[in-house]
Amino acid sequence: MSVKGCQTNNGFVQSEDTPELELDPRSSVDNPQHQALSIGGPEEPNLQGVRPYAGMPKEVLFQFSGQARYRVPREILFWLTITTVVLLIGATVAIIAISPKCLDWWQAGPMYQIYPRSFRDSDKDGNGDLKGIQDKLDYITALNIKTIWITSFYKSSLKDFRHGVEDFQEIDPIFGTMEDFENLLAAIHDKGLKLIIDFIPNHTSDKHPWFEMSRTRTGKYSDYYIWRDCAHESGVTIPPNNWLSVYGNSSWHFDDVRKQCYYHQFLKEQPDLNFRNPDVQEEIKEIIQFWLLKGVDGFSFDAVKFLLEAKDLRDEIQVNKSQNPGTVTHYSELYHDFTTTQVGMHDLVRSFRQTMDRYSQEPGRYRFMGTEAYAESIDRTMMYYGLPFIQEADFPFNNYFTTLRSLSGNIVHEIITSWMENVPEGKWPNWMTGGPDSSRLPSRLGNQYVNTMNMLLFTLPGTPITYYGEEIGMQDISATNINESYDTSTLLSKSPMQWDNSSNAGFSEGNHTWLPTNSDYHTVNVDVQKTQPSSALKLYQDLSQLHANELLLNRGWFCLLSNDSHSVVYTRELDGIDRVFLVVLNFGDSTLLNLQEMNLGLPTKLRVRMSTDPASQRSEADTSGVSLEKGEGLILEYNTNNLLHRQTAFRDKCFISNRACYSSAFNILYSVC
Amino acid sequence: MGEETSLRKRKEDERSLQSNKPQTTDLQKEVGLFSGICIIVGTIIGSGIFISPKSVLSNTGTVGPCLIIWAACGVLATLGALCFAELGTMITKSGGEYPYLMEAFGPIPAYLFSWTSMMVMKPSSFAIICLSFSEYVCAAFYPGCQPPKVTIKCLAAAAILLITTVNALSVRLGSYVQNVFTVAKMVIVVIIIISGLVLLAQGNTKNFENAFAGTPPSVGGISLALYNGLWAYDGWNQLNYITEELRNPYRNLPLAIIIGIPLVTLCYILMNVSYFTVMTPTELLQSPAVAVTFGDRVLYPASWVVPLFVAFSTIGAANGTCFTAGRIIYVAGREGHMLKVLSYVSVRRLTPAPAIIFYGLIATIYIIPGDINTLVNYFSFATWLFYGMTIIGLVVMRFTKKNQERPIKVPIFIPILVILLSVFLVLAPIISKPTWEYLYCVLFILSGLIFYFLFVYSKFGWAQKISKPVTMYLQMLMEVVPPEKDLE
Asked: What interface predicted TM-score (ipTM) does this complex get?
């Protein structure tokens, strides 16, 4: 049957193919060879002399397909395919292997710090709220922000709404409800943004249920706070030691209910939690988990250096030993060796980190930890980065610029160098120029530095952090208009965000606002600046855009070149990119800067990529004399293959956190270079 | 001497052994019921349900309507597949819609179908599946950022070449691979479902309370949800592409459809239920990879199994599309609508090697340019256009071919319902967002006619002069011959 089948099949040739078979002389192959072959097949004599043709059946095919001219290409193609598969997989593995760790969301773009009471009021009560923030998310996205940082919004009775929390798991009614918060968080995530929130573990409000139960010695709560016996007679308390509150006077307060003194680093309404009590640590971790489960992407841990105090309550040493101990009432008059940064404090922070790590495993859900290290020495600040093998904060917030009272090239240079030289290897820097606790930059240093400082922020390596209003150059309000009784000096930088020309600067449609708006809001507001081509806001957006799109700025080397009393000069460069950004910023008087003096091998003319004064429309700068006005900054650009970080002369002036090189051929970053 | 004779004897033995094989050079009937179900389940359940089962939820908003839509889509897909079961048992030819369009409307619609699906729809969806597999695998090594394009493309190309090679080498190997990956897929589906049910039994029912609370979804929302949901079921006609390779197609084709698609529906619903036990609707919408999030929350510390099996599942889906889609080219080539050589069968391996290799080549070309997602999106309406036409064909043949034997005959309201549905699915995206691109797509589909008249209809001599030697050489190179008619 099979033989018959074969014979039948021999005739099976598509009708359209057959006629041409004999007609096409070019389809012939050299006959002798295959005839010789076909002689060997004795059972199919009728196939002898047949040439291969299109549509041939297998009997014909087999006579020829074994020939080297067909077999060899076939084998080659087959093995080529196999090799290609192996090579492609190999290439994938190789690229993955040499890829540097990529930037996490908290590294990839700027953070935007919002004081929620002053950002936007949605319910006309004169106080900003969470819904208001949600209404303005489009604005924040337009700034190219990656992370929103909302400062404390917990239920609290203090007028300051920052410290002194009554319930860590509740939103203060003035800001809205928990539902508002969940909606805001969902909206933030929908826009691809992340949210970090303040967390103040050191103390609670004296209205907190824990404190109420602690002062009545209820169960485990009796040891939740730091209680000590102290003498209290006729209204006068003799504290257990000389420790002072940050706001002055003794940090011990006599409680009439428990008849003991409790310890408070800050106000007497803010009793310190006893972190040596494991139950307290457990409570704090539960609060952290509560918010992580809600979906919060990270925390700014405030006032962590105050977490622990020396157990033995030793007196702290006076700065001026000759001062009468009875008159020592100011916080600055003591060395705080026994009330701040105690042994074990970092272990606590690291244990918070571990709690957060358990929620970081889901893809794209790394939880960020920042720590506030206020008025610390650089060494102590760097401790928060953790040790090479124990992770702690992703970064301590760099607030050295926020406290500057005067500005010069040298001062800026010093702040940059001290951070860059001390930051542990592989750790990520960050920069901020203001915050709720310090006076706003234009009021502290002068209006002309708004643009330059923003340029500085976005061209330094690391995460830029912007306090709301800095993008439009908002100033402090003047102290006289404030009718709040709380410590007014800290409120000046918290005035309502200036959105437009309407009443209350578009912050609230109510009759009054909790703080007066700044009188300059007619000129300094978002609406006006959106339309001005040379406004601070426009420059901020451009800088933010540049920072996001230029590998040089978000991954490149940073080489701090020179400084004088006026200016600071540095470059951003990356192996594999033959362009270099040279940033010159003038913090002093107008000056003529000779860049050739630095022997960088610069061309005579540099392109101006961006200027703090876009109106000047400079397109080129002369390296032998760049004229800079007071507070003027330029991002210059030039092409070179001789990058500075490779030269011995500049090696110790160049810094990088995560080393990477760029390959333009494959459009990839690689780490082995 | 003795050696020589024994050698000759052995030669003869071999020859007779070879010739005794009752095998003709044609695609063999190697796909049984189980493999058939595997192909259906394996191609329908791709990566979507693991990575982004959001399109339904985002349009319905609440949990209850979301689950109802998933079920409704399953029912609709089953109805569609039943129509295809009728067609498949009536016309037992491979190639999906192609032979049915041919029987009902003649060669031109069939040609246009094969042209569009061969040049764009099938290879681009093959490419897309391989790309998403690759992206999924690479993303694991780039936490927090996008993997570089070049890695994604390298791995996708490797996947395409590998799958193509496997399927060109052996039908049995191809379907074996399919079975293994489908089993892997079912394992992870079952893991997710069972852990979800356990959680449900433990009382994690918070997200199901008031499942219908809140604003009811709008009509527009429901139709969008239906539209997206039905895409998750796309692939329900896969088995019709390989009818000729089914063992006992009259029994196995309808049976595989009846078992396969409700199985998929059940899996989809239960998986959604599982997701909702640990995720709120908002969390589900925001998760970049839902199954992985589920794994991290439920299966920790064994959560790594989820991404691994999702990768298996994706590559299985890619293999499934390759396995079936090669057959369209094969069938179209057989009818003379494509180069004849594409319909040839490998002599040694009995696979439609030229068709599969062609398919692999086009798919590889598609992954080279920047982004083919847009292309696929615009051509999506064409899929339902041809489904609709095919089922109109079914209705037409009820009148034109009254006497043809129909082992299965579905009630007439089913095809009419499916026709209405496909009209809706074709028009919905065009009306909701009319762009010029749809017109270009239609123009591309019609441009196939140029080739049809040039090469198929009028058969120019010069075209033949080129194609003959090429065909011959390719035959030699790949050792392929025209399929032989089965003699039995």
From this structure: 0.81
